[in-house]
Amino acid sequence: MKPSKRDPSPAPKGKPAAAPAATELPAWLFPFFLVLVLVACYAKAIGFGFVNFDDDALIYENPMVRNANWPLVWSAQWGTADYKPITYWCWMALWKMGGGSPWPFHLLNVVLHATNTVLAFVLLRRVVRQNGVTDRLSIWTAFFTSLLFALHPFRVESVAWSVELKDVLYGCFYLSGLLCCWNAFSGGKSRAVWWALAALFFPLSVLSKSMGITYPGAVFLLWLAHRGGAARLSGAFSGFASKSAAWALALLGLLA
User: Apex CA 71: angle with CA 76 and CA 203, to 5°?
Assistant: First the structure.
C-alpha cells in the first residue's frame, strides 16, 4: 500500500502574497541616477569662462589668489562680513592647478554639488524613515526631493558661477556634519567619533561661508526629527496627508 501524498497546505486567507524582493530597485541606483542627471545638466558649465561680476575682483584680478599668498588669507579678510579663508585657499589651489584657466573652478563646483545632492538624499531618507514612513516611501521621497534640490534654478548660480564655490563648499561641510550628527544620535560604539567629526565640520562650514553659522540650529532641528518630532507634527493628519506632510517638511528643509 503506497503512502498517500498530502497536498500542500493552502496559503492563509486574508493576507496577500508579498511581492518578491527582486522587483524593488536597489538603493544604490537612486543616488547613481541623481548624479547622472545632475552631470548631464551641468557638465556644459565646466567649459564656461569667468565673468566680470565678482569673478574679477575676487579671483582673476585678485593678487592674493594669483600669487597664492596662503598666510595672508587669515589676516586680509579679518573683521569683514564675508570672511571665508577656506574658500580662498581653494581658489588659490584651483588657480595653480589650471594656470589661471576657469575650468577647474567650474569642475569643482559640479563635483561638490553632486556630492551635496547625494548627502541630501542619504540624510533625507534616514530622517523620513525615522518619522513613521515606510522604507519604500522614504527612499522615493528622498529621491524626488534631492532631484528637485539638484536641478532647482536656485542652485544654478551656485554651480555655474565660479565665485559661488563658497556656496557648494560650505554646503558640503554642512550636510556632512548633519549626517555625522544623525549617526551620533543613533548611538553605537562610534558615537564619540561621529560627534568629533560633526564638531569639526562646523568651523569648516563657517570658514567657507558665513551662512554656516546656522549649523547649531539645524542640529537641534535634526535632533527633534530623530526623536520623531516630524511624525508627531504630521500626526494630526492621516493616510496620504501625513505622508505628504513628511515630504513637505523634507522639501522645506532643503530649499529654505
Answer: 80
DSSP of 119-136: HHHHHHHHHHHHTT--HH
Please report the pLDDT score of residue 94 as a whole number. Answer: 95
Using CB atoms within 10 Å of the CB of residue 1, give its burial: 0 to 12 exposed, 13 to 18 middle, 19+ buried: exposed
In tens, the pLDDT along 36-83 reads 999 999 999 999 999 998 999 899 998 889 988 877 887 776 666 678
Q: How many residues does the chain have?
A: 256
Three cell numbers written together for 133: 514612513
SS3 of residue 144 by DSSP: helix
DSSP states of 71-137: THHHHHSTTSTT--HHHHHHHHHHHHHHTT-SHHHHHHHHHHHHHHHHHHHHHHHHHHHHTT--HHH
Query: In terms of C-beta distances under 8 Å and separation of at least 24 residues, what long-range contacts does 83-86 make, across chains too?
Result: 83/207, 83/210, 84/166, 84/207, 84/208, 84/209, 84/210, 85/207, 86/169, 86/204, 86/207, 86/208
CA separation for the pair 144, 148 (Å, rounded): 6
